[in-house]
Structure formats: structure tokens, C-alpha cells
Amino acid sequence: MSSSVHSLLFRTHLLAVSAACTATESAQRHLLAKRCFDLACDARLLRPSQLVLARLSLQHVRAYCRSTMSSEGGRFQTTIRLKSRPKGCHLITQEVTEALGDHLKSCKIGMLHLFIQHTSAAITLNENYDPDVRTDMDRVLDKIVPESFDWKHVDEGPDDSVSHTKSTLVGPSVQIPIGNGKLLLGTWQGITLCEFRHHPHSRRLVATIM
After folding, report:
1. What is the phi/psi pair of residue 66, to 5°?
2. For residue range 72-117, what is the model confidence (pLDDT) as tens digits?
3. Which helix (H) or strand (E) holds 114?
4. Is 97 in contact with 190 (CB distance < 8 Å)?
5. Are residues 133 and 195 located together in one domain of the fold?
6. Is 114 exposed, middle or buried (0-12, 13-18, 19+ CB in 10 A)?
7. pLDDT tens per residue across span 158-174
8. Are 191 and 158 within one domain?
9. What is the C-alpha separation between 198 and 90, in angstroms, rounded?
10. Assign residue 181 a region: left if phi > 0, alpha if psi is -120 to 50, beta otherwise?
11. Of the residues 19, 49, 69, which one is the last residue of a structural domain?
């Protein structure tokens, strides 16, 4: 194959990579990435040195597609796996913002919706400064929903139905406005995870930026 044809094929590949990185719809990105894959895998069309570069650029496109797969029309969604915590109320604002990273920073005006995928934990907004507030919240919930009650559903221990009832009272979700890449929380507001099980659990939050 002539040098000019090799050069043309390689330029075509690089253009496809560029298009895949700037496509706004995930379907477009996947289609273009597949074209890159077909081209890069056909060793007959590219010289060895070009094939190496093609495969490297393809890896970049595929990683880009994965990282933005849940981002459509200015919206973004991801699942945040929180670290395990013992029973109690815990401040998780920093963990959430770090998980959202550039998706939060690039949002000028929007809304963050957080939804916890569990029935024995809850999420809410509360005091972010004095940890005694979170201790008091845990204590008062123990008073309102005591383990000493004659619970029927105790398959997973004495904190089983207790946890489900507390999670219903506190709730599974919160919404926080976004402005100029930051959560518009009040000075003393923080995102609070309420863990109702006695033993530490890793919890999942579905985070949606709209």
C-alpha cells in the first residue's frame, strides 16, 4: 500500500478519535469508537508504528466513553459508594463533592438529587459544625423508635424493623441547588448519612445532576 494511502488512513483514524471525544450523545460516541476499533484492529491498513498510536488513542476514546456514559443533555448520573460507617449520623458532604468532581464544578446552574438505595439507612441535611447535633439526632431517633418495642420483623436482628422504620421517618433523598460549580448549602448545612444498623455497612447513593 502506498505511503499516501497509509497517511490518509491514519489521518482518518485520528479524525474519528477527535469526533468521538467531542460527540455530545453517547450513541454517537460509541459508534465512532467502534469505527476506531475496527480501523485500529485491522493491521493490514496501518503500519506497525501507526497501529500502536491508533490503539493508544482508541483506549483514550473508550475510557472517555465510559466516564461520560451516564451524561446526557447536560445531565449526569452516577452511583457513589460510601465508605462503611457504624450506627449513627455522619457528615458526608466532602465525600459526595469529591465523588462528583468535575461534573459538579462544570455545572453553572442546576440541582443535585441524592437517593440512598437502602431501607435501613437514610439521608438528610443537618448541622455541619457541632458533632453533638448528630449524636443528639441519633439518640432521639432511638427514643422515638426503640428496639424494646414488640417488633415482628427481626429476621436480621433486633435492629431490623427499627432500621426500616427510622429510614421511613428520615427519608431516602435530598435535593441541593448548584451554582457556579458549588453546592449552595447554607453556612451550617451539611449532607448527613443516617446509619441505623449496629454493624458498619457500605452504602450506595445515586447522584443525579440536572
Report:
1. -65, -40
2. 567 999 999 999 999 999 999 999 999 999 999 999 999 999 999 9
3. strand 109-116
4. no
5. yes
6. buried
7. 999 999 999 999 999 99
8. yes
9. 14
10. left
11. 69
Please give the average per-residue pLDDT across 121-131, as a whole number: 97
Q: Which of 111, 125, 44, 45 is nearest to 76 (CA)?
A: 111
Under 8 Å between Cβ of 84 and 95: no
Indicate if the pLDDT at residue 34 is higher than 90.
no
Number of separate domains in the chain: 2
On whether the CB atoms of residues 176 and 123 are closer than 8 A, the answer is no
What is the side-by-side strand order in the sheet with 204-209?
71-72, 75-81, 204-209, 109-116, 173-179, 182-183
Q: Which residues touch 99 (CB under 8 Å, ≥6 apart)?
A: 78, 80, 207
Contact 78, 148 (CB under 8 A): no
Tell me: do 14 and 114 sit in the same domain: no
- 89 and 174 inside one domain: yes
- Mean pLDDT in the chain? 82
Q: What is the DSSP letter of 71?
A: E
Domain encompassing residue 40: 3-69
Query: What are the pLDDT digits (tens) for 60-75?
Result: 555 554 444 455 567 9
Report if pTM > 0.70.
no
Pair 60, 80 in one domain: no
Q: Are residues 136 and 34 in the same domain?
A: no
